[in-house]
Amino acid sequence: MRILVTGGAGFIGSNFVRRTLATRPDTRVTVLDKLTYAANPASLADLDAGRCRLVEGDVCDAALVDKLVADADLVVHFAAESHNDRSLREPAAFVRTNVEGTVAVLTACARHDVRLHHISTDEVFGDLALDDPARFTPQTPYRPSSPYSASKASADHFVRAWVRSFGLRATISNCSNNYGPRQHPEKFIPRQILRLLSGRPPRVYGTGENVRDWIHVDDHNDAVWAIIERGEPGQTYLIGADGEASNLDVVRALNRAFGRDADDFEHVTDRPGHDRRYAIDAASTRALGWTPRHMDLAAGLAGTVDWYRANEPWWRAAFDAAEDFYAATERRAAPTARVPARGAVRDVGN
Ligand code: NAD
Ligand code: DAU
């Protein structure tokens, strides 16, 4: 099977490529990646060149995408601008890659009748109140909050339009927050790990009560394969591992993993429009026979710490650049305002 993986030099895409080559001997992979600041070609450097090649290029380059899709049996579309904080500063790049790039992939897959799996996010559903017992399902209405999640929501609508209008054989998955090896140092968990490895305390936005539904990247990618192999074209699948934890829970667990006082961290400026809580009901993907294997978040975090401790050349330059990015706007702050609960109206503009 010839697989085109867009965004395969990023966090989830590179782990997908590695897991695919390790578990499916009948596969060959072409990675299409623009190698933006978020990519790290070292994530693929040790792979068998006979089974994996990297094409440096833009997913918005329709001619290039068409040529690569023509030679593929399956396309898995990870390429995206993926960081909420950056989408607040430079939204245009998110519209271009996440929306226009997806349309280029859809056009080529329809022209060559190639099966597509589109990687989306739970953020398209907006957020839940902290005390709301509800979780996201495939029927939850779209209500994105940030330029990033709005661009991913838009891309999902285009996928559905291509399924309905052109008969494209496509599935969509909306996954919760991933963690594990090879995640860019700008993201929450690696950032805190690398600050701790550098002798600096973790930094929590606002009160730290915001909740994310954590899943190990290998569990996400195994679920993607379950959908590719057993999912129904035209359907949407939600992926999550019942891993809800507040940001405070996570920094405390990381402090403990480093043998530090659990409450030794800093509160900093909150993210504008900060989503309160994400929570996934993954029944749609579990029905395909998939179950997550990494259910102990503390153990998963400890393994992730070990990976970063052993791979400083992989992360050093990107970590320094990410800290410079944050230094431009981030200030230490007292954790005064509580995260609004059910029914509360969130303040805007101040
Ligand atoms: P990432 O930022 O680590 O990787 C994105 C990759 O896409 C990078 O290698 C980058 O170079 C590449 N890319 C960006 N613009 C491109 C372009 N124009 N052309 C070609 N390549 C381009 O992101 P990630 O965390 O690995 O996320 C991968 C996908 O999974 C995204 O679609 C994201 O929305 C989705 N997702 C992420 C999470 C998460 O927790 N990280 C959860 C759910 C869904
Ligand atoms: O839910 C899936 C989404 O998860 C993906 O679609 C996105 O691509 C991915 O980046 C992630 O989005 P988040 O915004 O939830 O992830 P991030 O790692 O940026 O932040 C996680 C939480 O931690 C969030 O509540 C903000 C907070 N945070 C983040 C950073 C970088 C901090 O408190 N301190 C920090 O230094």
Topology:
Elements: E1 2-6, H1 11-23, E2 28-33, E3 52-56, H2 62-70, E4 74-77, H3 84-89, H4 91-112, E5 115-121, H5 147-166, E6 170-175, E7 178-179, H6 188-197, E8 203-205, E9 211-213, E10 215-216, H7 217-230, E11 236-239, E12 244-246, H8 247-257, E13 266-268, H9 283-286, H10 297-310, H11 312-327
Parallel strand pairs: 1-2, 1-4, 2-3, 4-5, 5-6, 6-11, 7-10, 8-13
Antiparallel strand pairs: 9-12
The chain binds nicotinamide-adenine-dinucleotide and 2'deoxy-thymidine-5'-diphospho-alpha-D-glucose.
The site of nicotinamide-adenine-dinucleotide has 31 residues, from helix 1, strand 2, helix 4 and strand 5.
Q: Which stretches are low in confidence, meaning pLDDT under 50 for 5 or more residues running?
A: 343-350
Query: Which second-level CATH architecture of the domain at 2-179 and 216-239 applies?
Result: 3-Layer(aba) Sandwich
Strand adjacency order, main sheet: 3-2-1-4-5-6-11
Global Rg: 19 Å
CATH superfamily of the domain at 2-179 and 216-239: NAD(P)-binding Rossmann-like Domain
Hetero groups bound? nicotinamide-adenine-dinucleotide, 2'deoxy-thymidine-5'-diphospho-alpha-D-glucose
Shape: globular
H and E order? EHEEHEHHEHEEHEEEHEEHEHHH
State the major sheet.
7 strands, parallel
Describe this entry's structure for a reader.
The chain contains eleven helices and 13 strands. With 350 residues, it is of the alpha/beta class. It has a domain of 202 residues: NAD(P)-binding Rossmann-like Domain (Rossmann fold, 3-Layer(aba) Sandwich), CATH 3.40.50.720. Helix 5 links the parallel strand 5 and strand 6. Helix 6 packs parallel to helix 8. The chain is globular, with a radius of gyration of 19 Å. 2'deoxy-thymidine-5'-diphospho-alpha-D-glucose binds next to helix 6 and strand 8.
